[in-house]
Design goal:
Elements lengths: L3 H8 L6 H6 L3 E6 L10 E5 L2 E7 L5 E5 L13 E3 L2 E3 L6 E2 L5 E3 L17 E2 L1 E4 L2 E5 L22 E8 L3 H6 L7 H5 L13 H7 L4 E6 L3 E9 L5 E9 L3 E3 L10 E9 L2 E9 L53 H6 L9 H11 L16 H20 L18 E5 L5 H10 L15 E2 L12
Antiparallel strand pairs: 1-11, 2-3, 3-4, 4-9, 5-6, 6-7, 7-8, 10-11, 10-20, 12-18, 13-14, 14-15, 15-16, 15-19, 16-17, 17-18
Bound molecules: FE2/S2 (inorganic) cluster (FES) and fe (ii) ion.
Length: 459
């Protein structure tokens, strides 16, 4: 079980918290590149409980900094994005993307001390349509995580952001909890209604799968297995990847190239950030699942309707179906058995369930089962890594050894092998299409980054 103090360690991500410090060691996907226009309006950005402002300067470089002006704490969100910097509208001080004060017009020239003033700015870079932010203290930024999906040509990557109104941990744990699939998403489906070759059939023929769970270089992994006839086994495999990433089993293993981040905005709100290869075989690219007779499988409606973004700290990429309207719950569909949950849409079902737990689930009330061993192991791995960082300064997995992520894949496949799970996984990976590593972005694409020989140090 997870104690109250472990629960706090796991779920609190603000500055100086154990998990917050762990997360600050990594590059964090923070916003879409398209959200920032050159010389356009600055954007309120909440990240790990910090209120930040993001903007794109005249040269196209991105600045991400504390929203409070270092003069007298007025919000730089109200600022003017002028030539090569953001000018506070209170007394006119101006800051470049690295946080340097470059103009102090409210002070007589002989008393000007702008060279001594810096806004607290974080390095950023752009990759795969995202602005990534590094909020750690190290003088040299770490490499980007070497996810396979970051090697795919950028025009073949699809990017989705959706806010979820709960703590990152319970959102993430919904992804590595495969035993809910046969209920929440498919509890209304009979195996006989589904075609023999449909992967879904295995999931519902056996709704209580057995698991292999293990630690990996990038985090944790499960392989859930069910007999699939003729000496074969149906495997569904998923990953947790430090510090808040998942890879789900909802695609054919050989081409399911994707990564899913659960980025804490604050401790009660999370931004789901989903990168996936458009040409892979997955729930996103296959037609809506249908039964043998051709009727669509209930509850698998596509499309997540978003509300218009606002400039609020938590106003970006919110679903129209949310707690205020019971996530569109249709009691009639639930009663007649056309949709087990009564909620239409796989993502929305997961969203509703994890939000329904409250902003931060009370772990003291849980009764974790053998089928929750992936969750238990992942919590333990996160806690151990966060404490090792705090107590011994030990860097957590994937920070310096970012290449470990390249070996992580998830999805479903059939195997006739009777070898241990790591070997079955290695075989499946070897048989998959792989993407050669693309070079990391060069320094020119980094904003406000302090490297050995760069002068644009953040404050
Ligand atoms: S508070 Fe920003 S310039 Fe004075
Ligand atoms: Fe789910």
């Amino acid at each position: 079980m997870t104690t109250a103090s472990e629960s706090r360690e796991l779920t609190e991500t603000g500055p100086s918290t154990v998990m917050g410090e762990l997360m600050r060691q990594y590059w964090i996907p923070a916003l879409m590149s398209a959200e920032l226009k050159r010389d356009g309006a600055p954007l309120r950005l909440m990240l790990l409980g910090e209120k930040l402002v993001a903007f794109r300067d005249s040269a196209g470089r991105v600045g991400v900094m504390d929203h409070r002006c270092p003069h007298r704490c007025a919000s730089l969100f109200l600022g003017r994005n002028e030539e090569h910097g953001l000018r506070c509208v209170y007394h006119g001080w101006k800051f470049d993307v690295a946080g340097n004060c470059v103009d102090m017009p409210s002070v007589p020239p002989h008393q000007d001390f702008k060279h001594k003033v810096k806004a607290r700015a974080y390095p950023s870079l752009e990759r795969a349509g995202l602005v990534w932010v590094y909020m750690g203290q190290r003088r040299e930024v770490p490499p980007l995580p070497a996810f396979e999906v970051l090697n795919v040509p950028e025009d073949e990557i699809n990017l989705t952001l959706i806010q979820r109104d709960c703590n990152y941990l319970q959102a993430l744990e919904g992804e590595i909890d495969t035993s809910h699939f046969g209920f929440l998403h498919a509890g209304h489906v009979d195996a006989d209604e589904v075609a023999e070759e449909e992967p879904l059939r295995h999931t519902i023929t056996s709704r209580a799968p057995e698991y292999q769970v293990r630690d990996t270089d990038w985090g944790t992994q499960y392989g859930a297995y069910r007999p699939a006839g003729a000496g074969r086994t149906y495997w569904r495999c998923a990953n947790f990847l430090f510090p808040f990433w998942t890879q789900a089993p909802n695609g054919e293993f050989g081409s399911h190239v994707h990564a899913r981040a659960w980025v804490p905005l604050d401790d009660g709100h999370t931004m789901f950030c989903f990168l996936w290869w458009k040409r892979g075989t997955s729930a996103m690219t296959l037609p809506q699942p249908a039964l043998k007779d051709g009727t669509p499988n209930g509850g698998t409606g596509r499309g997540n309707k978003l509300l218009p973004n606002t400039s609020d700290w938590l106003g970006r990429f919110r679903l129209a179906a949310n707690a205020s309207n019971d996530w569109g719950l249709d009691r009639a569909a639930q009663l007649e058995g056309s949709i087990f949950s009564g909620i239409d849409g796989i993502h929305l079902q997961d969203q509703a369930i994890t939000e329904s737990m409250g902003p931060i689930a009370d772990h003291a009330l849980e009764h974790l089962a053998p089928s929750d061993q992936m969750i238990t192991r992942t919590r333990r791995r996160l806690l151990r890594a966060a404490r090792a960082l705090r107590d011994q300064g030990k860097m957590p997995p994937g920070v310096e050894d970012a290449q470990v992520y390249a070996e992580a894949r998830s999805g479903y496949f059939l195997s006739a092998r009777d070898t241990p799970w790591p070997e079955i996984y290695a075989d499946a990976l070897a048989a998959s299409r792989r993407w050669p590593r693309r070079a990391a972005p060069d320094d020119a694409s980094l904003s406000g980054v302090q490297t050995k020989d760069a002068a644009t140090a953040p404050g």
